[in-house]
Amino acid sequence: MPRSTHAESVATQFQVPGRLVALQPITTGNVNDTYRVVCRTTFSEEQFILQRINKKVFVDPAAVMANMKAVTDHAHSRIEAEADDADRIWQLPRVIPAVDGRDYAIDDGGEYWRALSMIASARSYDKLSTPEHAVEAGVVLGHFQRIISDFPAADLEDTLPGFHITPLYLAKYDSIIDTDEARQRLDRSSEARRLAKFVESRRAFASVLEDARERGELNLRPIHGDPKITNIMLDNFTGKGTSIVDLDTVKPGLIHYDFGDCARSSCNPAGEETSDLSQVYLDVDLFEALVRGYLREAAAFLTEADRHYLFDAVRLIAFELGLRFFTDHLAGDVYFKTTYDGHNLNRARVQFALCESIEARETKMRRALG
Ligand code: GN1
Ligand code: MG
Asked: Looking at residue 129, what is its pLDDT?
């Protein structure tokens, strides 16, 4: 059965009133399959997000959903409690229960699906271009981290062991680079060989955050895990940040992974899918604005040591994502979805170019961080 047929049969298994009218694929994610579902009754319409959880990546989908449910319940009550004093209406997707009461439904093929409420009258962007938008991206990330900062990280399961632990991605790379598939791909492309050299030249830096964590300078907290710019929603009516979505990577981690991922995706005006490396750079004005927005919320919970490592986090997460894309290219594109040959190689080129640009702007970026 094609996946969309499964999607259609599973779309009616959640507690949403009405009959199924439409099922539209949303193609932006690199891992899960996502659809917008429209259901109608005789007097109203309800839309929601339906997602097939990629079991190759998330081996325990039920644990992913337990994390998502616990953190969103907590965040919703914090949002409610602060609503009267807030400068906007904050939104956050709600996990919609299946008809049997579980937080997911399983289709005939054993695939796990979840339903999430839609964020009303808001949209996200692949890249950003104005400082105002950057401020909003920073505020949204800082706000989310703040309202979950008092949720005990120990109550969350580690649903993606090794996620954002750069030395482990390096170890994976080392195990792939010697395979026949990788050697063939390296032989075929001088760009691939150039990227391999890039990895070697940054090897020593890869453990900067994990070393700090081992020394006790940084601590595990609940994190979003994937706060790239496409996961941050702005209110259509006010232009203000209103929500962060894509909550399946919520788990214990370093808040630095989040800050680094948000900054590297927000402050590269070319976006992560460009193939024109001359357009890829870290825009310091956007970064300065992002930091301003972020600190407005995050100053309340960041320690001195946390702040010290924020620059390294941006450099590291750009490097790490490049390394993950490059490793996947060498492995034959087994993790990230691709739409053309060499897609992951190109994505890696972009992140490594961004990493170099971040290095060149270190002084200015550290100044912006205060
Ligand atoms: C993946 O699936 P998506 O697009 O939300 C990846 C992130 C990467 C991102 C890069 C679980 O996120 O870590 O930063 O692609 N998610 C997972 O676009 O690996
Ligand atoms: Mg994601």
From this structure: 82
Q: Which CATH number fits domain 131-369: 1.10.1140.10, 3.90.1200.10, 3.40.640.10, 2.40.50.840?
A: 3.90.1200.10
The DSSP code for 217 is S
The answer to whether 215 and 370 have CB atoms below 8 angstroms apart is no
Can you tell me which atom of ligand 1 is nearest the CA of 272? 18
CA angle 123, 226, 139 (to 5 degrees): 60
Residues near ion ligand 2 (Cβ under 5 Å): 226, 246
Residue 248 C-alpha to ligand 1 middle, in angstroms?
10
Q: At residue 1, does pLDDT exceed 60?
A: no
Report the atom number in ligand 1 closest to the C-alpha of 31: 2
CATH classification number, 3-118, choose in 3.30.200.20, 3.40.50.20, 1.20.970.10, 3.90.960.10: 3.30.200.20
pLDDT given at position 6: 87
Would you mind telling me the total number of residues written for the chain in this entry? 370
For residue 228 and ligand 1, the question of a CB distance below 6 A is answered with yes
**Which ligand sits closest to the CA of 30?**
1
Predicted structure pTM score: 0.97
pLDDT single digits (tens) 76-118? 999 999 999 999 999 999 999 999 999 999 999 999 999 999 9
- Rounded alpha-carbon distances, angstroms, from residue 55 to 93, 112, 248, 284: 22, 8, 12, 38
Q: What is the pLDDT of residues 155-199, one digit of tens each?
A: 999 999 999 999 999 999 999 999 999 999 999 999 999 999 999
